[in-house]
Amino acid sequence: MNIQLKYESSRFYNETKNHIVDRLSTNGSDPVDIVSVDQIWLGELVGKSLLRNLTAEFGKWSGMSDLYEANLDGSVYNNTLYALWLWTDVRGMWYWKDMLQEAGVDPESLKTWDGYISAGVKLNDFFGDNITQGIHLVGASHDPDMWYPYLWMLGGEILELRQGHPTKGVYWFPSYNSSQGIRAMEFLKQQVDAGIKPQKEHYWGAEFANRTFTVMIEGSWMPREFPKESWPTLDEKVGFIPMFPVPNQTIATSTMMGGWELATPSTSQYSELSWELITIMAQPEILGPFLQEYGFLPTQHVLGDGPDSEPLRESIPYFEEMVSMIPSGRKQTKYS
Amino acid sequence: MRGRTGAGTPILTRKWQQLCKTNQRYCIVKTSPAVIAFLMVSIITTSTILDPALGTSVNSSSNNATTYDDNNTNSEDYSFTLSPSNQSSTSTLLDRTNVTLTGIFGGLEDQPAR
Which of A12-26, A58-72, B56-70 has the lowest mean pLDDT? Predict the structure, then answer.
């Protein structure tokens, strides 16, 4: 059998989904067999009947039980599996150890809401105009990502399935507009009131790596902002706290997860072969070196905390701490 | 889960060395992680799931021109030869001689997925 592989990819994230939707909607004579899906797009693509139901294939696949529950959940839409989540990310607190020490801020104080704001004030006072700001606060278009974890840790939800709609019966209620949602928003407002300005421009960690902020809640991709050769000793300079600040220590933290899934378009001519390739990609001996190279987090226990995790633990800074956040990770429900 | 030998690794390494020499601009750093995983699979699959003797990439690296078009998308073709194996779960395609798999991959973009 002679197999030819063709691939397409986009340069800009904001254009990728439209490219995928357009391409899958107008297959013509060149149908697509495998497609990357940002986890938050799954529901939208399924709603447009663009992805194939993979529930039966998952049932026969031995790797399903090894997926982290949160990542398996993110492959489901309407009780049906449509994709395999291959690698993920989490958000947590990154800080420059020397700058906090210089300003006399204990990193432990960042763990609670009150301590976090006090630290922000102290850092701003100490560093003044020498840096952009002590603590980074997202004010860019994805700022809801930095609000949801506070909503979740307070027990709130973005959407809630309810019954009794006068015309639709069961319906999704926007429950984010709740007392928990307001309290979560108040924490963000308290930061602004304390002089921590929302940053409208976002550079995904580069602004932290260049030391214009001393503390930044950002993704697990942060180590990629530093030279690979510095990874073995990065923890000597940069600290990581695997949590969003909590109202008090009795409340469990939460985090936002992201990452890419692979799916088979509904119009694929070779869906069986496509699924086989996807599962082969997920094999630890294939996926592990890839995660190690790029610093992504696994969606499988075997690579996260199992027997094949050692190379990742040894090479990716704060790997264990970041993986420890996966069980407390949640996903956007923007489209699902 | 299927077993795998290490036979694919040297082939993979050579493949990437070849690609890096001829196409440095879009070598590992500029190539979509998903694409890399896809290529890894293509090579490793060739040497393990299917018959290693026939699992040789047949495309010439000189044909690998990764370019962005006006729509900010890029594309690239790889072809290789596979031989049926009883380890493969794919059964309905074994009578086919030519198959083209097309993938659209994210991960290269200017910001992370979320």
Answer: B56-70
Nearest CB among B97, B103, B109 relative to A13 is that of B109
pLDDT digits (tens, 9 = 90+) for A163-181: 999 998 999 899 999 999 9
User: What's the pTM value of the predicted model, to 2 decimals?
Assistant: 0.82
Q: Which residues, 6+ apart, have CB-to-CB distance to B40 below 8 Å?
A: A281, A286, A289, A290, B8, B12
Q: What whole-number distance in Å separates Cα of residue B90 and Cα of residue B71?
A: 35
Q: Extract the tokens encoding A8.
A: 């397409």
Beta strands A34-38; B98-105: pairing state: parallel
C-alpha distances out from residue A26 to A20, B40, B104, Å: 10, 29, 14
Interface contact B51, partner A, CB < 8 A: no
A272-303 per-position pLDDT tens digit: 989 988 998 899 999 999 899 889 999 999 99
Q: Does domain A13-89+257-330 sit in CATH 3.40.190.10?
A: yes
Pairwise CB contact (< 8 Å): B75 & A89: no
Between CA A85 and CA A136 the distance in angstroms is 30
pLDDT of residue B30: 40
The pair of structure tokens assigned to B27 is: 């070598």
Q: Which residue has the higher pLDDT, B8 or A68?
A: A68
Predicted-complex ipTM score: 0.80
* CATH class of the domain comprising A91-256: alpha beta
**Cβ neighbours of A15 in B, within 8 Å:** 72
Of A5, A15, A57, A261, which to mutate for an interface test with B (greatest number of B Cβ within 10 Å)?
A5
Please list the residue range(s) of chain A that carry CATH number 3.40.190.10. Answer: 13-89+257-330, 91-256
